[in-house]
Structure formats: structure tokens, C-alpha cells
Amino acid sequence: MVQSYALFCAALLLLGGTLGDRLGRKRIFAVGIGLFTLASAGAALSMSLSQLVVSRSIQGVGAALLIPQSLAILSAAFPGRERASAIGAWSAWTSVFAALGPVVGGLLIQASSWRWIFLLNLPLAMWILLLLPKVRESNTELSTLSLATFDLRGTFLNTLGLGSLVYSLSFGPQLGWTNIRVVLSMVAGVSLIGAFLYSQRQNEHAMMPLSLFSNRRFLAVNLLTFFLYGSLGVAFYIVPFFSIQIKHLSPFATGAAFLPCIAVMFLFSSRIGRISSELGERSFLVVGAVCGAGGLVLFGLSSHRQGYIASLLPGMLLLGVGITIALSPLANVVMSSVPDEEAAIASAVNNSISRIAGLVILSIATIFLSHGFDRSLRAQLRVSPLPSQMKSQIYADHALMTAVRVPSDFGNEAERQGRRIVDRAFTNGYSAVMYAAGLGMLLAALPVIFWWGESSQELETIPASLNADLKSYP
């Protein structure tokens, strides 16, 4: 069910951005909201798992249409410094709702029914549709959609390529990386995306102009996006798992554990957006990545401590500071690095990269976690005084990690020791993953430090300034 949404959303994001730039961002945004609303109602009324999967898939299509337009519309609606504050607020609300989703969902499920998770979308969507007529169209140079100018080949290759890649990365951890479906999907995805990129070089009406990446700033900020969002994806997936399995927090308490991080983002994102625009986004992106890396490393360093305040809160606060400092300037740089007529496709590219990054780096992290758990478990069992037969039974299930069955046939004390060994092995693996994720977030800063060019707005001001100088020249 979760994968169906992610699959369609990621596969169609570039198409959504292209349609917005071609046919009007406001129009495509409205279509996306409409589809998302209808699909939410369908999900809430689903009577079977298959109906729910179909509804979630349609939700993914709607999201792919509306996500690229939201930032492009906002960027065009606010000039200069106001744009930075608006994008900062957009980043804050986006992050807050994304983080609060699991908390609110858990409360709704406990208090009533899972159906309310989808019904909650309906009044919000209706409110947006009522406000939408007041928003002016951000793209004044609209074109008609014809087979002669629409990149059908690129659309086909990109959609199938991203869909195949997302499928393999989503199901690889469950089915195993040697599973034939996973392997074939991975090979097909990489091949189709390669063919898509080649087709864009040959197409006058390419859906994703490769000239976007000739802008060093746009390229640098998207490389930063890959490592930043990939590392965040690791934290937002593995930290809750660790909190539930090792710290024995409830699902609701685990979601609430992220509230300090959310509070920092909500309170300061808009201000950071404005200040970074005045002082220069580059230093904020670097400092944000470094602070975020520090937060991830703190998760690893404090993993053996007891209690939320000692084991999780320091990392949450520092990670929140890092995200807040980095994300608002990031979105602003993406929008300012490209011409206005390519804003939606630029937003779609950046969103696609962030989603693929989360899947790619999380897949690597789960392999890393499994390896770290296995190595620590073997080392502890080797020196443990537990009976040899009990050690063999524990290690036989090592692939299950925290779900390893500790035999109770050897006495209560031996069972407790065995469980402590398993928990310690997972904690050691978790710490190693957090250190690696911190390193990944540090890597996010490197493209910004060493590969930074002018934005499209800065480039556009150069001819005007030169012209003024020429006129004043005696």
C-alpha cells in the first residue's frame, strides 16, 4: 500500500513538472488536488486491500501533479526577499506536516479508525480548491499540448525507468537483493533512465532539458539534495525502529519524540529563509549540512544511554537545527537557479532526486545495519558464557535482527543475557549506521563548497549592469 503511492508519485513527478510548465501550473495543480481528494475519499471508503492499493496509486498520481507546481507557484507569487521568506514558510509547513503525519495517524488509529487518516485530507483539499481561484497563473507563456511537440518517448522512458527503479529499491529489502524480480527491475530501471537521458540530448522539445544541469549551482544543490535527503531518510526510518525495538517506546511516543525537531523547523524556517537570502545561501547550506551531520552522529554516540533525554533529545535538537538552516535556502536556490519558465520541471527534478535518494541510501543503510548487527552478534557470542547450543540457536536467526528468537530452555538468566546480547548487537549496528549517515550528510556540503556558480537571476542582471556602465562611459 505504501509502495503503490511512492511508486506512482516518483515515476510521474517529471511529467507533472513538464505539464505545469506547458499547460499552466495553476491548472495542473488543481487537477492534482482534485485527483488526490477523490483518491483520499476512495481510500477511506475502501472495502478491500485491492481497492485501497488502487486509491493510494491514484493519490500518488495526484501528488506527482501538484508537488512540482506548489513551489513554482509560490516562487512566482513573491518577488525578491519576500520569496525567500515565503519559501522558508513553505519548507517549514512541508516538514512539519511530513513529520506530524505518523503522530496524527497513530492517534487517529488508536482513537477511532484508520479511515480518518484519509478523511482528514478532504476538508483541507476543499479549502485549497476554494482559495485557488485567487491565485494568479505563474506561467504566462502557455503552449498547447500536441503530439508534435510533446516528448512522448521521454515520458515513456522516464516513467517506466523511475517506476522500475523505485520498485526494486522498495521491495529489495523485503524480497532480497538477489530476487529475480528485484534484479530485473533494477537493471530495467537503470537502463531505461540511461536511455531517457540520451533521448533528452536528441530532443528539441525534451521534457527535462539537460541544459538545467549546465548551471553549476543547480547541479550542486541537487547533489546536496541527494545526500541530505538520503541521510534524513535513514534517520526518519531507523531511529523510530530503534526507539520501538530497543528503547521500548510506543509508536505514538516514538512519533512524539520528533517534536523538538519539528518545533525548531516550524519556529525558525521562515526567518532562516529571509536571512539566508540577504547573507547568501551558500554558507547556510554548508552549516546546515554540518549541523545535521552532528545530530546524526549524536544519535550514534548516545545510543547506549538510557532515557529519551539522554539518548535521543540531543540528536533531535541538533538535527532540527541543521534541517532548518539547510532546507529553506535549498528550495530557494533550486528556484533561483533556473529561468522562470522552467520552474516546475526544476522543482520536479529536485523532488525526484530527494525521493530516489531516500530509497537508495536507505537500502544501503539496511545492508550496513544487517552487517553491523551480524558482526557484533558473532563477536559477543564468541566470548559469552552461554551454552554452545543456545549460541547456535540465537545465531541461526541472525537475519531477523531484533526479532531473533532467544531460547528459554536454558533458564531465565540465560534468556535475559541472550536478549541483552541481541539488543546490544542491534544498538552497535544502529550506531554504525548513524555515523555513516552523518558522513553522508557531510558529503552533501562538498558540492556547495567546491562547485558553485551563479544563479539564473544573477546572470540575467549582468547584461543590464554592463549596459548601464557602457552608457555612463565617456
TrEMBL record:
GO terms for cellular component: membrane. Residues 1-456 form the Major facilitator superfamily (MFS) profile domain. It comes from the Bacteria. The chain crosses the membrane at residues 30-49, 61-78, 90-109, 116-132, 152-170, 182-199, 219-239, 251-272, 284-301, 308-332, 429-452. Pfam families: MFS_1. InterPro entries: MFS, MFS_dom, MFS_trans_sf. PANTHER family: MAJOR FACILITATOR SUPERFAMILY MULTIDRUG TRANSPORTER MFSC. This is EmrB/QacA subfamily drug resistance transporter.
